[in-house]
Amino acid sequence: LHDALPISICPQLTKLLHEKGMDDVIVVLGGIIPEPDIIALKKSGIAEVFLPGSSTQDIVAFIQTSLAQPR
C-alpha cells in the first residue's frame, strides 16, 4: 500500500462511522507509520496505532481496555 494511504483514508473512515452513529467502533491500525502521521491519525479518531514489533498481547489488552470504557 502507498505510504500516505492511512493518513488519507482513515479520517474519512472515522468521519463516516461517526455519521452512521457508530461511535462505539474502535479503529486501530498497524504498520510502518511515521510519528507525525500517528499524531494526525489519533486526532482524526483512530484509537491506536501499533507499530511493527507490537505484541499481540499488547493489542488485545488495548482493545479489552477500550471496550471496558464507556463510549
Cα radius of gyration in angstroms? 12 Å
* SS element count, helices: 3
Overall geometry comes to: flat
Helix content: 40-55%
Average pLDDT number:
90
**Any low-confidence stretches, pLDDT <50, length ≥5?**
none
What is the number of beta strands? 2
How would you classify the helix and strand content by structural class?
A: mainly alpha
Biggest sheet features: 2 strands, parallel
Helix-strand string = HEHEH
Which percent range describes the beta-strand content? 5-15%
Q: What is the terminal separation in angstroms?
A: 31 Å
Strand order within the widest beta sheet = 1-2
Question: How are the SSEs placed, and which strands pair?
Answer:
Layout: H1 5-19, E1 28-30, H2 35-43, E2 48-50, H3 56-68
Parallel strand pairs: 1-2
Helix pairs in contact: 1-2
